[in-house]
Design a protein that fits this description.
Helix content is 71%, strand content 7%. The radius of gyration is 53 Å and the shape is flat. The strands form 3 sheets. The chain has a 3-stranded antiparallel sheet. It has a 3-stranded mixed sheet with strand order 6-7-8, with helices on one face. It contains 15 helices and 8 strands. Among the domains are: 91 residues, Ribosomal Protein S8, Chain: A, domain 1, CATH 3.30.1370.10; 119 residues, Hypothetical protein af1432, CATH 1.10.3210.10; 73 residues, K homology (KH) domain (GMP Synthetase, Chain A, domain 3, 2-Layer Sandwich), CATH 3.30.300.20. With 520 residues, the protein is mainly alpha-helical. The longest helix has 146 residues.
């Protein structure tokens, strides 16, 4: 076999192999397509089945949802129906109640209208009777004048004169006896009661000199001052010994205390706490103590300056402390330390003119009211307390005597004591030293009484209860019950027109006739 044949055979074999491969690949592709087609048909069938299953499940779920929603709607409708029925019952009850009230009001209105008609009829009847009575009185007066030969005014004057003479004689005897009893009693009690009471009593300046106000940046600060459950305000009042008044007044709190030193300490401490913003019991205690120390130090420095300026020598440190505390004490609105310095200068000037001991006069004058620094905490008058302090800290007998005698409790034992008493009176009595208190208040009471007294037949008038009530006493022989009512109305009208006041003023007209006699 030749080479060409072999090549030919190989070529044919290759061709046959290629053709066979092509045919086989074609058959593979055809089968693959058929498989894919079959697979696609299976997937479509599965999808159709799954679709049917999903649709069925959705239908079942939708049916269940519809059933549930229907039940909920029915339950809600049932609940709503119950609420509507409840409201209907309430509305019916209210309507019934309103109808009852309307009927009650209609009855009241009818009753009031009837009463008004009755009152109008009574007033008309009273007017007619008053006119008849006036006519009868005038007729009786004319008859009496004809019988007695005197006019009614002349007869009245004669009767009044005879009664007045007898009353004056009896009154004079009683007044004389009362005056003698009072004079004897006053001589025994005047020094013990009047001096002790009038010097220590706080009522002379309660309304004007026992409070201090502190301005706040805002009303929220009031809550911080009060604190949780009131712990801050309780701590503040305990530490300062004052009352803290927090009311509806905007951005202001009031500190109340009869003790001016405590009031000043509380005022400064509260101002510092408000400015600092930290308000709690520990901070309150710390601030109050610091302010107290500063004020005592300031008072001591003030006392040293006064003693140096007066050139009266050295004072015991405790007396210096009490002297400085007088800076925070007032008497009838006059500062006690300033008053004491003025008394010292006046006593010194008079001692110099008379050739007496100037230093002793100044020293006694400066210390004459030293007891007022502590008399609110210690029993006894300020003169006794001051004398005890002076004696305790080594003052001489003349200074002690001047302190005790400047209000006349004991007799002076030296001319300087007399000068201190005179200087004390001059300092207190000079114009401008002590401000007039409650002048406008007293003037208002006097105006109320004058309006009442200006009416004919009014015997006396008294304004009481701080001017909220005016009691008017009328002559029973001149004013009858009806005229008493008219006088009360006239006074009320005049007060409303002429006087400015708050609230209301109650006018009470009293008509009373008494016949009194004594069997001896």
């Amino acid at each position: 076999m030749g080479a060409m044949e072999i090549i030919l055979i190989i070529g044919l074999s290759v061709i046959v192999g290629v053709l066979g491969g092509i045919f086989g690949y074609h058959q593979f592709v055809v089968r693959k397509k058929e498989y894919a087609k079959q697979r696609a048909e299976d997937i479509i069938k599965d999808a159709e089945k799954e679709k049917e299953n999903i649709l069925k499940a959705a239908q079942i779920e939708a049916q269940e949802f519809m059933i549930k929603a229907k039940k909920e709607l029915e339950e809600e409708e049932k609940q709503t129906r119950k609420e509507l029925q409840k409201w209907e019952k309430r509305l019916q009850a209210k309507e019934t109640n309103l109808e009852k009230r309307q009927a009650y009001l209609d009855e009241k209105i009818e009753f009031v209208n009837k009463k008004q008609e009755d009152i109008s009829a009574i007033e008309k009847e009273l007017e007619d009777k008053m006119q008849k009575i006036d006519d009868m009185i005038n007729e009786q007066k004319k008859k009496l004048e004809e019988i007695s030969g005197m006019t009614s005014d002349e007869a009245k004057q004669q009767l009044i004169s005879s009664i007045e003479d007898e009353a004056k004689r009896e009154a004079a005897a009683k007044i004389k006896k009362i005056e003698e009893d009072l004079r004897n009693e006053a001589k025994r009690l005047s020094q013990d009661i009047l001096i002790t009471s009038m010097e220590k009593i706080a009522s002379s300046y309660v309304a004007e000199r026992t409070v201090a106000t502190v301005t706040l940046p805002n009303d929220e600060m009031k809550g911080r001052i009060i604190g949780r459950e009131g712990r801050n305000i309780r701590s503040f009042e305990k530490e300062t010994g004052t009352d803290l008044i927090i009311d509806d007044t905007p951005e202001v709190v009031v500190i109340s205390s009869f003790n001016p030193l405590r009031r000043e300490i509380a005022k400064i401490a509260l101002e510092r706490l408000v400015n600092d913003g930290r308000i709690h019991p520990a901070r309150i205690e710390e601030t109050v103590e610091k302010v107290r120390e500063e004020l005592f130090q300031e008072a001591a420095e003030e006392a040293k300056k006064v003693v140096f300026d007066l050139d009266i020598g050295d004072l015991h440190p405790e007396l210096m402390k009490y002297l400085g505390l007088l800076k925070y004490r007032t008497s009838y609105t006059q500062n006690v330390l300033a008053h004491s310095v003025e008394v010292a200068y006046l006593a010194g000037l008079m001692a110099s003119e008379l050739g007496l001991n100037v230093k002793l006069a100044k020293r006694a004058g400066l210390l004459h009211d030293i007891g007022k620094a502590v008399d609110q905490e210690v029993e006894g008058s300020h003169t006794k307390v001051g004398a005890d302090l002076a004696k305790k800290y080594g003052e001489n007998e003349y200074v002690i005597n001047a302190i005790m005698s400047h209000h006349g409790e004991i007799e002076p034992n030296c001319p300087e004591s007399v000068l201190v008493s005179i200087a004390d009176t001059l300092s207190a009595a000079r114009p401008g030293a002590r401000r007039e208190r409650l002048e406008s208040y007293i003037q208002r009471l006097e105006e109320l009484e004058e309006i009442a007294k200006s009416k004919d037949g009014v015997k006396e008038a008294y304004a009481i209860q701080a001017g909220r009530e005016l009691r008017v006493i009328v002559e029973p022989t001149m004013i009858d019950d009806d005229k008493s009512f008219m006088i009360a109305r006239d006074i009320a009208k005049n007060i409303a027109e002429k006087i400015t006041y708050t609230g209301q003023v109650k006018i009470v007209v009293i008509r009373e006739k008494r016949s009194i006699e004594y069997a001896n």
